[in-house]
Fold this sequence. Notes:
This protein is mainly beta. It has four helices and 30 strands.
Amino acid sequence: MNSKLAPLFSLLLVAIAAIGCSADPAQVNGGGDGGTRIDAMARPDAGDQPETCNFTNCDGCCDGNVCNTTASESNCGVRGQTCQTCESGDECFSGSCATPTATCDEACDGCCEGNQCLQGNMTAVCGSLGNSCVACPDGMTCDAQGACEAAAVCDSTSCPDGCCREDGMCIATQAQSLSGCGTGGAVCGMCSNDATECVSGICVEDQPCLEFCNDGCCTSSGQCIGYGAQTSTVCGETGTCSSCSGNDSCVGGMCTLDTVWTITIDSAVVSNVDENGSTWDFVTIFEDKIVGLPDPYVTGALTNDVIVDWATQTIPNTITPNWNRSVDSYRQSDLTNEGLEFNVIDLDGITFEFIGNCIMTITEVELMSGSKNISCGPLVSDLTIDFAPQQ
C-alpha cells in the first residue's frame, strides 16, 4: 500500500466494494440441454451412437447402455437408475437394497414389500407405517412421508441448479450421475459412452489433464487449475473441478464453510519520538515550545486491495493508544489467502505523519485463537488485532 495515499485514507475512509468472481466459461456451458457432452479436446464426430439406456426406455436399471430388467443383488434399481450393487447380506427388493427380515408390520417406518421393510419414498415403491408398497399413478410422485402426491412442476424456475426427472422431481447437480445429468431445469439426460462423470450438470469426457494435474483440478476444457487459483465455482483437490454450494468457499481444493470474521483493532505501543529522534508534535505559546505526543489512528485493508477499507478513530496525545474498535468483517478464505495491511498514522490537524506500515499474515489457527500481536515497523510495537466469528 503506497504511504502517499494516507491523506485519502484519513479523509475518505472508503469502504471496499465486494469482489466479484466469474466462473471458467467452460464450467457454465451446460445450460439447459440436459447433459451436453463437453469435449476436452477437438474430436471428430463419433457418428451414430447406440440408443442410450434411461428412464424413458428402461423399467429396470441401466448398466451403461444395457437395461437390466431382472433385479439382482448386483444389478438393483428401477426406472432407468444406474444399477447398484447391494452390500453383503442385503437383497434387492423392488429396486431397493434392503436387509431381509422375518416379518414386516407397523414397526416399519416405510412400506412392506412382502417381508421386507423398504424406505417407501420412491415413486415406484411408496408407502409408510408398514402398509404395502404401491406405485404412484402417472403424474404423481412419492413424498418423504411415503404418500403419493401430485408431482410439482419442475422447470428452470423451480430447479435452477439441477435437472428434472420424468416424475417431476428436481435432481440437484451433486446427486446426479451418468444416467441422469443436466442443469437449468432441463430434463435429466443420459451421458454418452465417452463421458466419465457428471460434474455440475455437465457430462465430462476423459481428459489428458487428469494425468498430470496433481495439485489442483481439471476444468471441462482440460485446464489444470491449481489450488491458489481456485474459486467457489472452480474447486477440487483432484479430478474434475466442481462448484461449491451455498456460502461455501474453496480452500485448499475443498468446499468448506467460509466463516466471516469481525476484525477489531485493539491497541498498540508507539515510540515517543519519530524516526529522526524528534518529538511527534509541539506547539509554540508565547515563544515557549510545548511538547506534544502523537495522535495515532490506524487504516487498513486486505493486502491486495489498493484502497483503504476502514480507519479507526484518532486517540489524541498518547503513545499507548487503545482504540478497541471493530472495523470490518472478512471471509476466512480472504484473510488466510491475502492477510491484512495496516498503516499507523499521526494526525496533525489537517496534515499527517506516518508512524508505521505492516502486513499481517493470518492462519486458521490464529483466527481460532482470537487475536494476534505484531510489530508495525520500528516505531510501533504490540499492535494487537482481535478476531471474532460472526454467528
